[in-house]
Specification:
It is a single chain. By secondary structure, this protein is of the alpha/beta class. It has one domain. 34% of the residues lie in helices and 15% in strands. The chain has 8 helices and 8 strands; from the N terminus they run αααααβααββαβββββ. It has helices at residues 10-17, 53-61, 63-83, 105-108, 112-135, 164-175, 187-206, 233-245; strands at residues 155-157, 208-215, 223-230, 248-255, 258-263, 277-278, 303-309, 317-323. A hairpin with a 7-residue loop joins β7 (303-309) and β8 (317-323). α2 (53-61) packs across α3, α3 packs across α8 (233-245) and α5 (112-135) packs across α6 (164-175).
């Protein structure tokens, strides 16, 4: 007897369509996964968009982890758009239309915008996993380790630290998988994306701070219980935005026995571990240019009018219109 499959809900059909996007960060299409869709069977991994073979294998071997990664995809989209809300490029292209099969070129090309998205994506995956360990949402991990150093008088280690180590291990295994495939684009692009992803994870390491809770009579705080916890993703995104604004343009050239990325306009030196790099210059994002991935700023301007009054003789009124969306 022939088995008749039930038609998929429209929302899941949309998700499957998004699986054809042409980018090694196409896993961000997971942000469109319906909130009601829970991954509790291995066959559900086939319904998830944008996964390469090793990512799908990770899904099948750890279903709980994929729920966390879906949450990370939503966080990347939300955080990126909030972080760049005052700029000409406002990360709107990260939320592709539901009827589209690819990202806009600003995320496909090796621009500083794609550099930021890769860095934020890598940070967000590890950040979400680390906190899921703390909250008990992942059964394969628990609280982070207690620091080895002896705390100062009046302090003691306790609480539940964010498990950054587990987050970094599993996060990098997932986010770097597409760039390690043979058919992952040019070698220069792969080096750029791998580098920027590691910059994102380094920003996450730098965001591990000591958090404490006070104890004592009448709020005296005579003793503090402390643990290592991560800053919020929005704070990490602002750090990466600073790196985006000072990103270094690089070229792919022979260095010794192999080709490496080196700064284009600076005397030859290695690329620094904490700097974002890009291969292609970005459009100005003011004018609409579908080929370059610019949606333009028309109909989305917030105008500020200012009046200048010049002394002497008569008063001359000068109107100056500032484009808030320019980010200048």
């Amino acid at each position: 007897m022939k088995r008749i499959s039930k038609p998929l809900p429209l929302s899941l059909l949309t998700v499957l369509l998004l699986s054809q996007v042409c980018s090694s960060i196409k896993w961000l299409a997971l942000s469109h996964t319906p909130a009601s869709f829970h991954i509790n069977q291995t066959q559900h991994c086939k319904l998830l968009p944008g996964l390469v073979s090793s990512q799908a294998q990770l899904c099948r071997s750890n279903l709980e982890l994929m729920q966390t990664i879906i949450a990370a995809a939503r966080e990347v989209k939300k955080t990126c758009q909030k972080t760049f809300a005052d700029m000409r490029w406002n990360c709107s292209s990260i939320d592709i239309p539901r009827d589209s099969t690819r990202y806009r070129p600003d995320l496909d090309r090796g621009t500083r915008e794609s550099a930021f998205v890769y860095a934020l994506s890598a940070a967000a995956i590890s950040h979400t996993i680390a906190r899921a360990c703390t909250s008990g949402d992942l059964r394969l991990c628990s609280c982070g380790p207690i620091p080895g150093e002896i705390p100062e008088p009046g302090y003691r280690w306790g609480g539940c630290a964010d498990n950054l180590h587990y987050g970094l291990v599993m996060g990098s295994k997932f986010s770097d998988a597409p760039m390690k495939m043979k058919k992952a684009g040019s070698h220069a692009n792969k080096l750029m994306h791998l580098h920027n992803s590691e910059v994102g994870r380094q920003a996450l390491r730098d965001a591990l701070v000591m958090k404490c809770k006070c104890h004592g009579v009448s709020g005296s705080c005579s003793i503090r219980t402390c643990w290592r916890g991560l800053q919020d993703l929005k704070d990490i995104a602002m750090d990466l935005k600073t790196k985006y604004l000072s990103a270094t343009k690089v070229v792919h050239r022979p260095m010794g026995t192999r080709k490496q990325l080196v700064p284009k306009d600076i005397d030859i030196r290695p690329v620094r571990e904490n700097e974002l790099v890009y291969l292609q210059s970005s459009p100005d994002f003011c004018a609409k240019n579908d080929k370059l991935g610019s949606v333009g700023t028309q109909d989305s301007l917030s105008r500020i009018y200012s009046v200048a009054v010049f002394p002497g003789g008569g008063k001359h009124l000068v109107l100056r219109i500032l484009d808030k969306a320019s980010g200048l």
